[in-house]
Design a protein that fits this description.
heterodimer, A: alpha+beta, Butyryl-CoA Dehydrogenase, subunit A, domain 2, 11 helices, globular, B: alpha+beta, Butyryl-CoA Dehydrogenase, subunit A, domain 3, four-stranded antiparallel sheet, three-stranded mixed sheet, 12 helices, 9 strands, about 55% helix, flavin adenine dinucleotide binding (chain A), flavoprotein (chain A), oxidoreductase activity, acting on the CH-CH group of donors (chain A), AcylCo_DH/oxidase_C (chain A), Acyl-CoA dehydrogenase (chain A)
C-alpha cells in the first residue's frame, strides 16, 4: 500500500496540468469552474467546442483500453488527470455520459461493428449521450420499466414509451434505452438495452422545470422511435444496465470531488469574510465538510484499487457523497445567513450557492435514493434479508 | 500509487486475526480484564514474541522486520476487533512511534531492539493533545551530568506492565524534553487504576526526583517530531477503533439475523437494516481514513525522498480525520449494536458492553472527534 506517486506519474501530472493551463484560455477561459450540477445549462456551445478540444488533446477516454481507442492509462494516471482537470477549473463535461457510461458499456458488450460505429465519435468529443432508464412508474423500482421495444418486419426495433429525469436529453445525439423486448415479461427479465438516435420524428424531449427554475432534466417520449442498435441479445438488458452502474463508480467520481472542493472553498471564503468562521457551530460543520470530502477521496482511491475486498467501499460511496453534498448546500446557506435570500438577477437568477442548496436536494434522490442505497448496503454488503416484494 | 494491500500485509493481518480468534475470545478477554494487571500475558507472548507483531514497525538494523506503519495498523485493527487486553498500542503506537520520530540512531538502537523482540513493553506519559484543564505533567531540571524528573500522570496506558517508560517533561522556562527511562528507575512508580473500559489497562504514573543520565533525553525532539509521534500514535489507536466499529457491526448483523419477533428475523425489518447500513457506512469511511492515514504515517516515519516528504505533510490532517471518523464510527456502531441487541445488550453476560466501553475510552484517548474537528478547522479557517 503506497500513496505517493512515481516520478513518471508526476511527469504525467505536469503534462496534464500544462495542457489544461494552455487550453483553458481564450474562448474557453470563461468556462473555468462552470457547468457543474446546478449550472449545467451554462455555456452550452462553448462546452461543446471544449469537448472537441479535449478530445483533440487526447484527454477523452484517458482510462479506456488502447484497443478501444483510449489512452489505457493506469488508475493512478486517471486519478491524476481527474484531479488536475478539476484543479484547473475544467468545466462540467457534456460528454461524461458517453465517455463514462455508454462507451465503456459498448466496449464491454458491443460487437466489433458496434464498437467501430459508436466509440470513435465519443473519443472525438462529437457524440453526446444521455441515459434512458427511469420512468414515471419505474423510479426506485427500475425493473418495472414499461417502455416497449417491438421488432418490426424490417428487422428493426421500435421503441415506445416515456423516460423521465433524463439529463442532457435536449443536447444529446444518442440515448441508451432500457425497454421491454418481451411484452409478456415483468421485472428483470425480458429487457433490452437499445441505442437510439435522438434526432428522429419518434423522439420528443420536454424539459422539466425544477425547484431551481432551470431545467437540467427532461422527459423523453418515444413513439415508434427506431433503435439503431440492440446491445447484446434481447433479454440481456438488465445484466448490461447493472454492469453500467459499475462503470458509473469509476474515476469520474474524482472529478466530481474536485468540483465539490471548489464549492467548499467558496463557502470557506464567505465564512472567513463575513465572520461565520468564528461561530463554533459553523466551524465544526465546515471542518466536518472538509473531512467528509477528504475521506470521500480516500474512499474513492480504495474503490479504484479494484481489490475484491473493497466492494463495500463502493457500496457506501453514493450514500456518502449524496448526503455530504446535500449537507454542504445547507451549510452554504447557513454561512451566508440572511444574505442567502438575495438572488443574483431578476426574475429568478440564483447565485451559485443558492443553486447548490436547491440542486443538492436531488442528489439524495437520483441514482438510487438514500433509502434504496441503505437497502442495497444492508442486503449486498451485509447479507441481510431482502425486502419483500408486492405483487 | 497503490492503495491496496500487498500479499505480505494480508498475511500479517490474517495471521494476527487467526491468533486472536483462538486466544482473545470472550472468555479469555474476561479473564484478562479482571486480572491484577488487566493484561493477557500469554497472548502478549504469542503476539509480540512468537509472532513478532511489534517488530513490524522496527527497522531491520535495529532487529525489526522493517515492514512499516500499515502493517502495525493492520495489527491494531485486529486487536480492536477482539478487544484484546495487550499493551500493543502503548508499546508500538505510543513508544515505538515516539522513538522513531524523536530519538537518534544510537537511542533507537538501544531501545527499539527490545520492542522488536517483544521483550520490552513500553509506554509514553504526556503525549496527549492539550485538551480541557489538565493537571498532569512532569518537570525536569539539570542534575549533575543528567536530569531529575518529577511529576504525575493520572492515567497512562499499560504503564504498570511497561519496563520502558517515555516521559514528556518541561523545565521552568517551558522547554519541552522527552526522556526514556527503565521502569525500575528509583522514584518512578506506576500503579494500576480502575477504569470503565477494563480491556485497556491504565496506571497512574508518579515521578519523584527520578535521576536520569543525559543519554536518556531524546535528541531529535522538537515541535515537529513530537507532533509526528503523537499523530502516528493517533493513527494506530484509530486503527483499533476501526476494528471495534467492524466487530460491533458484525455482532449486530449476526444477532439480528437470529433474533425473531413477530414471526420473522428482526434483520428483515427496514428499521434494522437501515441502521445497519449506516453502521457500515461509518465503518467503511473510517477504514478509508485509517488506511490512508497509515500510509501517510509510514512516509512520515520512514520516507526519505521528495515524494514521501510531500505525502508526509498531510499527516496532521490525515491523522485527525482518521481519529475523528474511527472514533465516531466505533461509538456509533457499538451504541447501535447495544440498541439492536435490545435488553441482552445491556447485560454483563453479552460482549456488547466490552466494545461499547472500549469505543468510548479510545475515542477520547489522544483526542476526541470534537478536538480533531477543531484541529482541522484551525488549519482551514484561522
Amino acid at each position: 500500500m503506497k500513496i505517493s506517486f512515481s516520478p513518471e506519474d508526476e511527469a504525467f501530472r505536469e503534462q496534464a496540468a500544462r495542457w489544461l493551463a494552455e487550453n483553458l484560455t481564450g474562448e474557453f477561459e470563461k468556462l473555468r469552474f462552470r457547468g457543474g450540477p446546478g449550472d449545467e445549462h451554462s455555456f452550452i456551445d462553448e462546452r461543446r467546442a471544449w469537448e472537441k478540444r479535449l478530445a483533440a488533446g487526447g484527454w477523452v477516454g484517458v482510462g479506456w483500453a488502447t484497443e478501444d481507442g483510449g489512452r489505457g492509462a493506469t488508475i493512478s494516471r486517471q486519478v491524476i488527470f481527474a484531479e488536475e482537470y478539476a484543479r484547473a477549473g475544467g468545466p462540467g463535461r457534456l460528454g461524461h455520459i458517453g465517455e463514462g457510461l455508454a462507451g465503456p458499456t459498448i466496449a464491454a458488450f458491443g460487437t466489433p461493428d458496434q464498437k467501430a460505429r459508436y466509440l470513435p465519435p465519443i473519443l472525438r468529443g462529437e457524440a453526446l449521450w444521455c441515459q434512458g432508464y427511469s420512468e414515471p412508474a419505474a423510479g426506485s423500482d427500475l425493473a418495472a420499466v414499461a417502455t416497449r421495444a417491438r421488432l418490426g418486419d424490417d428487422g428493426r426495433w421500435r421503441i415506445s414509451g416515456q423516460k423521465v429525469w433524463t439529463s442532457l436529453a435536449h443536447l444529446a445525439d444518442w440515448c441508451f434505452v432500457l425497454a421491454r423486448t418481451d411484452p409478456a415479461s415483468s421485472g428483470h427479465l425480458g429487457l433490452g438495452f437499445f441505442l437510439v438516435a435522438m434526432a428522429q420524428p419518434g423522439v420528443t424531449v420536454r424539459p422539466i422545470e425544477q425547484i431551481t427554475g432551470s431545467s437540467e432534466f427532461n422527459e423523453v417520449f418515444f413513439d415508434e422511435a427506431v433503435a439503431a442498435d440492440l446491445l447484446g441479445a434481447p433479454g440481456d438488458g438488465w445484466k448490461i444496465a447493472m454492469a453500467l452502474l459499475g462503470f458509473e463508480r469509476g474515476v469520474s467520481t474524482l472529478g466530481q470531488q474536485m468540483q465539490f472542493r471548489g464549492e467548499l472553498d467558496e463557502i470557506i471564503r464567505v465564512a472567513k469574510d463575513n465572520g461565520a468562521a468564528q461561530d463554533p457551530d459553523i466551524r465544526a460543520r465546515i471542518a466536518e465538510a472538509q473531512m467528509g470530502l477528504t475521506v470521500m477521496r480516500y474512499n474513492a482511491l480504495r474503490m479504484l484499487g479494484g481489490d475484491a475486498e473493497e466492494t463495500r467501499a463502493a457500496l457506501v460511496y453514493k450514500l456518502h457523497w449524496a448526503s455530504w453534498h446535500r449537507n454542504l448546500g445547507k451549510l452554504a446557506m447557513d454561512v451566508l445567513g440572511e444574505a442567502a435570500e438575495l438572488c443574483d438577477t431578476a426574475p429568478y437568477g440564483l447565485t451559485r450557492l443558492q443553486s447548490l442548496f436547491l440542486f443538492t436536494r436531488a442528489d439524495t434522490l437520483y441514482g438510487g435514493s438514500n433509502q434504496i442505497q441503505r437497502n442495497l448496503i444492508a442486503e449486498r454488503g451485509l447479507g441481510m434479508p431482502r425486502e419483500a416484494k408486492g405483487r | 500509487m497503490q492503495f491496496t494491500f500487498t500479499e505480505e500485509q494480508r498475511m500479517i493481518r490474517d495471521a494476527v486475526a487467526a491468533l486472536l480468534a483462538e486466544q482473545s475470545a470472550s472468555t479469555q478477554v474476561r479473564v484478562a480484564m479482571a486480572s491484577a494487571t488487566g493484561t493477557d500475558d500469554a497472548l502478549w507472548q504469542a503476539l509480540a514474541v512468537d509472532m513478532q507483531a511489534c517488530a513490524v514497525l522496527v527497522p531491520e538494523r535495529f532487529g525489526g522486520l522493517g515492514a512499516g506503519f500499515v502493517e502495525a495498523a493492520l495489527v491494531g485493527e485486529q486487536l480492536g476487533r477482539h478487544v484484546a487486553c495487550v499493551p500493543y498500542h502503548a508499546t508500538v503506537g505510543l513508544a515505538a512511534s515516539t522513538l522513531l520520530a524523536c530519538a537518534d540512531d544510537a537511542q533507537q538502537a538501544a531501545w527499539l531492539s527490545g520492542i522488536a523482540a517483544g521483550t520490552t513493553i513500553a509506554s509514553v506519559a504526556g503525549l496527549a493533545y492539550a485538551e480541557r484543564k489538565c493537571t498532569d505533567g512532569a518537570r525536569f531540571r539539570l542534575h549533575g551530568d543528567g536530569y531529575l524528573l518529577s511529576g504525575r500522570f493520572a492515567a497512562v496506558p499499560h504503564a504498570h506492565v511497561a519496563n520502558l517508560m517515555l516521559v514528556v517533561a518541561h523545565d521552568e522556562t517551558g522547554e519541552t524534553a522527552l526522556f526514556a527511562l527503565p521502569a525500575e528507575s528509583p522514584g518512578l512508580s506506576a500503579r494500576p487504576i480502575p477504569t470503565m473500559d477494563q480491556t485497556r489497562a491504565q496506571a497512574e504514573v508518579l515521578l519523584s526526583d527520578v535521576a536520569v543520565p543525559a543519554s536518556a533525553r531524546l535528541t531529535r525532539l522538537d515541535d515537529t517530531t513530537l507532533t509526528t509521534a503523537r499523530d502516528c500514535a493517533t493513527v494506530l489507536i484509530a486503527a483499533e477503533l476501526l476494528g471495534v466499529a467492524d466487530a460491533s457491526l458484525a455482532m449486530a448483523v449476526d444477532y439480528t439475523g437470529e433474533r425473531r419477533q413477530f414471526g420473522r428475523a428482526i434483520a428483515s425489518y427496514q428499521a434494522i437494516k437501515h441502521r445497519a447500513a449506516d453502521m457500515l457506512l461509518k465503518a467503511e469511511l473510517a477504514r478509508s481514513a485509517v488506511y490512508y492515514a497509515a500510509c501517510v504515517a509510514n512516509e512520515a516515519l520512514f520516507g526519505r525522498d521528495e515524494a514521501a516528504r510531500k505525502v508526509a505533510r498531510e499527516l496532521p490532517q490525515a491523522a485527525s480525520l482518521a481519529k475523528a471518523y474511527a472514533g465516531e464510527a466505533a461509538f456509533y456502531n457499538a451504541g447501535s449494536a447495544l440498541q439492536l441487541f435490545g435488553g441482552v445488550g445491556f447485560t454483563w453476560e453479552y460482549d456488547v458492553h466490552l466494545y461499547f466501553k472500549r469505543a468510548q475510552g479510545c475515542s477520547h484517548f489522544l483526542g476526541s472527534p470534537a478536538l480533531h474537528r477543531e484541529r482541522v478547522a484551525r488549519a482551514l479557517l484561522d
